[in-house]
Design brief:
single chain; 10-stranded antiparallel sheet; 5-stranded mixed sheet; alpha+beta; 431 residues; 17 strands
């Protein structure tokens, strides 16, 4: 079937079946820890973040790759989309807009690897003012196992009106925002050089770096990549609901609504609906919603987002006495809050699972120790330790540094803050 006129004097209708049968060249992608770290920096990860070192330091016990990195191996297929002859559609790069993105992570992402991506056209839709191409990309690891699925929804301005269908069952739907107030909100300012840094992960479109090109497209200055804004939002959700563990992320969906200028502040509002976190992101300075209809499906542990009452329902643990004693000494020495000025969270493990969460707040005067996850300010440092080992450390029978080196004690966040608690443990060891 050849491309044909729409019958109303409009643009030539594309040969959709020919486009679907087009064979894209396979795209190889090799990456290492440095590639993953560069991407993390590009989406705003800092050494000052609670879980920052897990994405920025290859020597971290929990070094991992951000879930939104899963789009990077597939994005090379977009170049093939521009150069392909898709049933008569004119591919002018200046008229292409990234409308939506869906990412499904079928296997945990390794910290280095070799991937091969295979792309195909799933559908073409007529939106009147433009055509929508649904591009799907399967990514396979070195063993040939399918590990990532991406769906790019690309809008081509001016290529619509050919009399085609207006919707597609192939497109992954977005999510509606609940009517209630957000359950959680995170704000973070982007850097004025955010786009210049993010482009090093592969998207070299000059609209994100060249003021003249951005001006020709109607922008006052270069804009931030939509996928960069998505990377910020995904981090916000993972930190808020998954303890910063990207391996719990299963799927991501978003619509790119409006552009962001580097240096603007992003606010991600989140609503939990079971194991799905619905989110939208706006620019604080102007109120524009820039990411809409978004959601993340994740394996969420209620223990990590527990309320104080939920956490206190745990069975009696040996370490309970440690924190009760710590509570007594914090109350008797209110000056500790001035000396330490930080919030700590303890995740006590039993049989490999979180059995209790304790918060030691030595930031809010006069200081407090209570059972349950931190409320309000996020903890600057989080400890994960077995119940028995916690008691051994508190009684001086297990050196915390040796416990850390042997993997018995895991520390997330600002590891330097952990040294400030040494005095409390030394006092307990003498009891």
């Amino acid at each position: 079937m050849a491309a044909q006129k729409s019958g109303r004097g409009g643009p030539t209708a594309p040969d959709i079946e020919a486009a679907k049968s087009y064979r894209f060249p396979e795209e190889a992608f090799h990456y290492d820890a440095d590639t993953a770290i560069l991407y993390a920096l590009g989406v705003g990860v800092s050494t000052q973040n609670e879980n920052g070192l897990n994405y920025l330091y290859e020597g971290s016990d929990d070094f991992m790759v951000l879930p939104s990195f899963a789009v990077i191996p597939a994005q090379k297929s977009l170049v093939g989309l521009i150069t392909a002859n898709l049933g008569g559609i004119q591919m002018d790069p200046t008229r292409l807009l990234h409308g939506e993105q869906y990412i499904e992570i079928l296997k945990p992402l390794p910290t280095s690897g070799k991937f091969v991506s295979k792309a195909r056209i799933a559908d073409i839709v007529d939106k009147g003012s433009g055509a929508v191409i649904v591009l799907e990309v399967d990514t396979f690891d070195a063993a040939g196992q399918r590990c990532i699925f991406n769906q790019f929804v690309i809008f081509i301005v001016g290529s619509g009106g050919f009399g085609g269908k207006r919707s597609s069952d192939a497109m992954r739907p977005t999510a509606a925002v609940p009517s209630r107030a957000p359950d959680k909100t995170v704000r973070q300012q982007t850097s004025v050089d955010q786009a210049a840094l993010y482009r090093l992960s592969g998207d070299k479109n000059p609209i994100h770096i060249n003021p003249q090109i951005a001006g020709l497209a109607g922008f006052s200055r270069p804009i931030l990549h939509g996928l960069c804004s998505l990377g910020f939002a995904v981090r916000h959700v993972m930190d808020a609901y998954c303890d910063g563990d990207s391996r719990k992320c299963k799927a991501i969906k978003v619509r790119f609504a409006k552009p962001v200028l580097p240096g603007e502040t992003l606010q991600t509002d989140m609503w939990r609906e079971g194991n799905r976190i619905v989110f939208q992101t706006k620019v604080v300075e102007n109120g524009n919603i820039v990411l809409s209809g978004g959601y993340i499906d994740a394996a969420i542990s209620d223990a990590l987002v527990a309320t104080p009452s939920a956490a206190s329902s745990s069975s009696q643990l040996k370490s309970d006495a440690v924190f009760k004693d710590m509570e007594t000494r914090v109350k008797s020495n209110p000056a500790l809050a001035d000396q330490i000025n930080a919030i700590f969270e303890w995740h006590i493990q039993k049989d490999g699972k979180t059995a209790a969460v304790w918060t030691v707040d030595l930031k809010s005067k006069p200081g407090s120790v209570r059972q349950g996850a931190a409320q309000g300010d996020k903890p600057g440092c989080t400890f994960i330790v077995d119940d028995d080992d916690c008691v051994l450390m508190a009684t001086g029978k297990l050196n915390p540094q040796q416990a850390f080196m042997k993997g018995k004690l895991k520390i997330k966040g600002n590891i330097m803050l952990s040294q400030k608690l040494a005095g409390l443990f030394q006092q307990q060891a003498k009891l």
